[in-house]
Structure formats: structure tokens, C-alpha cells
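Human: I'm a chemist; would you kindly supply sequence and C-alpha cells for a protein?

Assistant:
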Amino acid sequence: MVGSRARVAVLVVAGILCVSLAAVIPLLQAPSKTSFGLHVADLPPRTGISPVNYTLYGNAVGGWGFSSTAIREPGPNITVFYGDRVNLSLVGTDSAPHSWFIDYNNDQTVSPGEPSSKDFNVPGNVVGNFSFDAVQPGNWTYRCGMHPTTMTGRIQILEQARPVNLTLYGDAASGWGFSNATIRKPGPPIVVLYNTNVTLTLIGHDSAPHNWFIDYNNDLTMSPGEPSSKDFNVPGDIVGTFAFVASQTGNWTYRCHVHPTTMTGTISIVGGPPPELPRTMFPLVTEIMVGALGIVLVFAAVYHFRAVRAAKRPR
């Protein structure tokens, strides 16, 4: 009876460990590469990125145009990058009221979630001003809400974020700056959208060699997987050029590996998946659970073997 209870207890513990292990295994999978939705207006201003500005002229019969003399149907194509803040100035060239919207579902009416302006070319709002965030990649039709078949055009929202090009000046004693006159310690903060292609032009302000890297683990040295440039301000490579993809969400420190304590700054990569947990954490937890499960199974086998032998003994 005692042996039976012990076996039951062991099997229950083993079952709990199996369930826990099954819950941890999915967490070990690589992070998803799917697109991460965001509202750009809620993000901090991004470095090197400005809003995209368009002026559209509309006419109920003629369509849309970038000028009053270039109105046509369909109207001009618009192409923006994922994450762009788009500012529209909307002007009517007739006496009719108009509006502007992106018809994601192509049903010719404004639906929830579709960027749509207020009516313009009306008393109190003759020239319309409308801003939206380009966060729905694809090829879409834009329309006038009042004239959805005669005032149309195409807008393409690219899947990639707008590339960023920055110039950084470095000095071993003074730090980093976007110009010779603004070098400071710490250097200027950099904010980029997840998966942005970033290109840096790197210029030395002194005679020392330098480089630029993102110190993900904050150990003051370049580690595998950390974006890092070649040395610059050296013979044959006075001005450095370095391109990388901002693929690790989080707030990080950038440094010069030659002067890692005096040439620093912060880079924030926003709008993507959560920062990765230390890669050693989950494997360690898994190893402990697997070891515990193995011990429990050994005890279960011993109890079972003893119970079988006891049952076969003559009474």
C-alpha cells in the first residue's frame, strides 16, 4: 500500500515536471520575424527622420494632383516607408466638399482603422490638414469619401523602414557629436525604428584611431553579434563608413572599442519585439528541469521494480 502511494506521488511529480517542461520549450524558439504593429506618434522622435509632406489638389470630376494643373484620374502614385509620419495638405479646386482616406478593404467607404481626413473645401476647413502613420504595408487605393470612384489614386507603403544616414564625429577625450562643434560626452542619443538600415559616416576629430560598435552586453568590448565598424581615422581609412540593420530592440550603449569609457552614447531601437532575454537563462532552466525529471523517473523505476518483486514473493 505504501509502495503504491509512493509510486502515485512520484508519477504526479513527474507529470508536473513534464507539463512545466512543455511550457518552457516554446520559449526557446527563435523570435518571430513577423511585422510588429506600432503607432509612430507614440514613439520618441527618430534620429535622421523627418515627416513626409504632400500637397494634394482634388476635383470631383478631374481627380487628384500634386498641383492644380496636374489633376488627373487616377491621381498621382504615393510611396512611403513603413513607420513614416505622413502630413497631407488637401486643397479643393471646385466647389464640392471632399475628404481623403486609404481604402484598405476596397469597399469605397471609410471603415474603422482606415486613415481618413475630415471634410475639406467646406466652410471653416477650406484647406484640409491631415496626418497619419504608415503602418500597414501594401499597395492600396486612396479615395475621396464623397467621390470614391472619380477621385482615386494608389499609395504604396513599403515593408521596410526608411533608411537612416548619420554622420558622427569622434574624439578620444571629448566623445561623439553630429558635428565638430557638438562633440560631447556622452554623445548624442540615437533613436531608430526596428529593422532600419542604418549607415554611419565616421570621422575622427583627433589623431587617434577609433571605431563604433553597439555594446549589447555592456562589457566595454566588442562581442560576437554586436554591430561594429572597422577602425577609422587610420591610414587608408580616415573616414569610416559602416552600415548595419537595427535588429535588436532595446536601449543600448554605443562605444569606441579603443576608448570605450570616454566615447559613449545611447542608441534606442524601438517598435520591434521585446529585447531578447539572456541566452543562458532558458537553457539553464531547461537543464535543471530535465535533470529533476530524470531523477524522478529513476525513483519511479526503482519503486516499480521493488513492487513487482514484492508481489512475486510467496506469501
Notes: The chain has three domains: 2-29+278-312, 50-161, 164-270. The domain at 50-161 is CATH 2.60.40.420 (Immunoglobulin-like). Residues 217 and 223 are 8 Å apart (CA to CA). DSSP finds two helices and 16 strands in the chain.
